């Protein structure tokens, strides 16, 4: 049978990204005494594309049958495709500047002070008049809850939709300040109203005494926060210390679902609705889930406009439904996939989630004191 030489070339870039090229050389006679002999030539003295060294390897593999050539092609096709997106939650301490974090702390303090004076404090802020004005539209807590969510969703998603235009007009940082300055107060009003009126609706079911339910819902709520906050990996961008960007993430939680915030919100809503079991919780969950389902379409649209073919490639190997791309083989998980979660941003989310759980009594007391 005729023999052939298969030559494959692989180039390893930063984040372990790999791009593979393969070519079939002309037929050459191979020694019959060792027909499967393999030789490897590796060179690591190539230019550096990032902080990690690029490694160039050439592998020459002799094959003696068509079946073996087909097996080689199948193994090559199973290799991980080169990433076109970003490595999510990557945090390198050596790249951090102390001045940036001091600036971030100062900005956070100013924002919280202004938020308190201009919105939260009933004697000086506009938060209570805003909630009172919305409450005059209906005597139903469910309807008011939905209106508050609709107002927040309209401002939040509306500004996100016009982000490209807004950044061109006033710049990335000023637009982020405008975005946060309008979205944050409305989010606070919606959350406070939900906390204060979550038990005012019609009771539909009462299953809080079911064995193991509290533990199950607590775990679900804990998991939901790992999905809810992938876009806040870089807190310096959130505070506009670093220039804000629309990221095309491709690792970590994005391997499981391309829209983790939607999935996290659905999990959170289901857990709280099952626990509370009344019409206000159902209304709040309906509004929040509807908003995030719209965000699935709007988010894909925005990424497609900005990243074009690169987004289409990421879209082809990810899924909206959790684990769907993994189960149908479009997403290939690396053996060390768990390492993509052992990173400081995820550890920070863990600490904040636990802190928020134990701070529930404080949050409830603060909300009641506002009388919204």
From TrEMBL:
Q: Any idea which UniProt keywords this protein has?
A: Membrane, Transmembrane, Transmembrane helix
Entry membrane topology: Multi-pass membrane protein
What are the record's GO terms for cellular component? chloroplast; membrane
Domain NnrU, chain residue ranges per copy: 144-363
Molecular function GO terms recorded: 9,15,9'-tri-cis-zeta-carotene isomerase activity
Indicate where this protein resides in the cell. Answer: Membrane
Pfam families, per the entry:
NnrU
Q: Where do transmembrane segments lie in this chain?
A: 101-120, 143-162, 174-195, 215-236, 341-360
What domain of life?
Eukaryota
Please give a single GO biological process term from the UniProt record: carotene biosynthetic process
Is Transmembrane among the key words of this record?
Answer: yes
InterPro entries this protein is in?
NnrU_dom
Where does it primarily localize?
membrane
Record-given protein name: NnrU domain-containing protein
Tell me what organism the protein belongs to: Cajanus cajan
């Amino acid at each position: 049978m005729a023999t052939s030489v298969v030559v494959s070339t692989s180039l390893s870039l930063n984040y372990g990204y790999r791009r593979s090229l393969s070519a079939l050389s002309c037929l050459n006679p191979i020694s019959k005494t060792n027909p499967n002999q393999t030789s490897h030539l590796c060179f690591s003295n190539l230019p550096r594309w990032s902080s990690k060294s690029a490694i160039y390897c050439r592998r020459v593999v002799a094959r003696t049958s068509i079946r073996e050539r087909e097996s080689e092609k199948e193994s090559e096709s199973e290799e991980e495709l080169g990433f076109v997106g970003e490595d999510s939650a990557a945090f390198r301490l050596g790249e951090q500047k102390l001045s940036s974090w001091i600036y971030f702390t100062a900005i956070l303090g100013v924002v919280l002070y202004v938020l308190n004076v201009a919105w939260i404090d009933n004697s000086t802020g506009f938060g209570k008049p805003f909630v009172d004005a919305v409450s005059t539209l209906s005597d139903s807590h469910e309807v008011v809850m939905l209106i508050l969510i609709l107002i927040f969703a309209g401002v939040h998603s509306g500004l996100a939709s016009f982000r490209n235009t807004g950044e061109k007009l006033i710049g990335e940082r000023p637009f982020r300040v405008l975005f946060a300055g309008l979205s944050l107060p409305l989010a606070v009003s919606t959350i406070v109203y939900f906390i204060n009126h979550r038990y005012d609706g019609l009771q539909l079911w009462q299953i809080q005494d079911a064995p193991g339910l509290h533990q199950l819902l607590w775990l679900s709520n804990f998991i939901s926060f790992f999905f809810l906050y992938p876009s806040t990996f870089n807190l310096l961008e959130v505070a506009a210390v670093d220039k804000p960007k629309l990221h095309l993430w491709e690792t970590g939680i994005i391997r499981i679902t391309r829209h983790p915030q939607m999935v996290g919100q659905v999990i959170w809503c289901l857990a709280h609705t099952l626990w509370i079991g009344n019409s206000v919780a159902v209304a709040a969950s309906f509004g929040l889930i509807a908003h995030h389902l719209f965000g699935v379409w709007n988010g894909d649209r925005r990424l497609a406009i900005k990243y074009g073919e690169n987004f289409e490639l990421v879209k082809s190997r990810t899924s909206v439904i959790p684990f769907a791309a993994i189960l149908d083989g479009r997403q290939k998980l690396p053996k060390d996939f768990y390492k993509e979660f052992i990173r400081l941003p995820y550890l920070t989310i863990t600490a904040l989630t636990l802190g928020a759980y134990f701070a529930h009594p404080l949050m409830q007391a603060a909300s009641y004191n506002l009388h919204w």
